[in-house]
Design brief:
The complex is a heterodimer of chains A (about 350) and B (about 200).
Chain A lengths: L1 H6 L4 H38 L15 H11 L10 H17 L18 H22 L3 H32 L4 H7 L18 H14 L11 H4 L9 H26 L17 H22 L5 H29 L5
Helix pairs in contact in A: 2-10, 2-11, 3-10, 4-5, 4-10, 5-6, 6-7, 6-8, 6-12, 8-10, 10-11
Chain B lengths: L1 H22 L3 H21 L3 H25 L4 H35 L19 H9 L4 H22 L11 H6 L2 H4 L14
Helix pairs in contact in B: 1-2, 2-3
The chains are: A mainly alpha (about 350), B mainly alpha (about 200).
Amino acid sequence: MTPFLQGLGLPFGWAWTLATIIEILLIALPVMLAVAMVIYADRKIWAAMALRRGPNVVGPFGLLQSFADGLKVFLQETIIPAAANKTLFLIAPIITFTVALLAWAVIPFAHGAMLADINVGLLYILAISSLGVYGIVIAGWASNSKYPFFSAMRASAQMISYEVSIGFILICVVLWAGSFNLGVIVEAQKGFGFGVINGFWCSPLLFPVWVMFLISSMAETQRAPFDLTEAESELVAGYQTEYSSMAFALYWLGEYANVLLMCALNATLFWGGYLPPFNWAPLYLVPGLIWLILKILFGFFVFSWVKATVPRYRYDQLMRLGWKIFLPLSLLFVFLVSGYLMLIGHFA
Amino acid sequence: MIQAIAFYLFATMMITSGAVTILARNPVHSVLWLILAFFNAAGLMVLAGAEFIAMLLIIVYVGAVAVLFLFVVMMLNIDFAEMRAGFIRNAPLGVVLGVVLFVELFVGILVRSAGDLAIGNAASVSAVPAGLSNTAAIGALLYTHYLFEFEAAGMILLVAMIGAIVLTHRQRSDVRGQNVSKQVARRPEEATINVKPEIGKGVSL
């Protein structure tokens, strides 16, 4: 977009700034809209699996339910507990929400279409997602209340544990693609399976890694069955207990934006991103953005499906899964993948 | 122009947040200011063109180390009056440490301006590979030229980790842990019996 604005007579600096702001809006606004619709989809899928109807009153098929909910919380009063640390209490949801949007900067939406085409794209995502824990920990501490505090403790332990194995999982993908740049990683998946299938998932060495990534990303985003930070039977509503109105809505939106981001990452790293599922010329006529959205939505369906069917983990089981199973397994796969790639002379 | 603005922004923010880290009365606020300082340091690294180091700084320090700091500090029950008394007592030591660190930093800058740093002898310094992104360049040097130093550092960290685990690990005999493989391996035949007792006789277990 920068050359286009330069063509309108703007100097490079201004054209670049304006173009970047427009591009940020072009990503952030559709993501927010998608979050609203995806909350509706989540409730519908969940309801369908429980043989209920789900939201069906506001708008046709209840499509406007999320917007009605948004309006409702917007009109509510923001209550700040007297004993709370006021500044941090208000900063915490802003952190969660901002961090959930930041990582979208490096996701490629079509060939070469990403906001920041940086060499360390995947590391950037890892760095940003490691910030997500602060929104929760600060909320738990600033609320000055028992249940949010327990929830913050759980969240920090849980997110750090699963980040370790996610790191190793990403190393397997990076080894195969030879780059941290997400665009290069997507291009490396073109015709990966026998020249027919686009996507890293079809390799016998990377398929188990993909399964681990899917489960770890559920733990990282605190989705069921790993939603121990807001386990309502134990902690009321976890770190959100003291929040109301828009501060609560920011957590809500940030959480689903994070889930969408994890689905996008899943699609980009293992299912070929904006590439069609099969390396067949007519499929390339469909724009890459459509394929990416379809893959993200399929990933989200899997998330909802798991949420609707699997009971919540116990906390010690969660820790056991993270440290005693995923960590050694992902380390083993780093070893296997790099060994195999050395064997076939991938790096030569 | 924009680089200069960004540099002065990051640098001022970093020094300010560093200062507030030691001046803040609440230890949790201190840790949060420290995190802001880390963040601005990462921004400076990006400006210097070292994006790999910048990302590692955020992942390792902000994402892991500082979270654990926060974790510990949040759970401490701190007596502020006692802490302030300790401040006066420990101030001379702190001043000495600060001076030592400052002198070391100063000497480091002097040495750096005298020429490239060398590990071992000066002849063993290898040039930075040209035409590589800095992620690839670090890898190319670390896994070839500095392989021994790298692996030695890895071994030291491993020993430290095992040491920490050995020191803190204790076997508790008074709690019943869950043995998952034992539970999974259990079959209905070995767990249940089907008996048909005569009326009025009962069953012996």
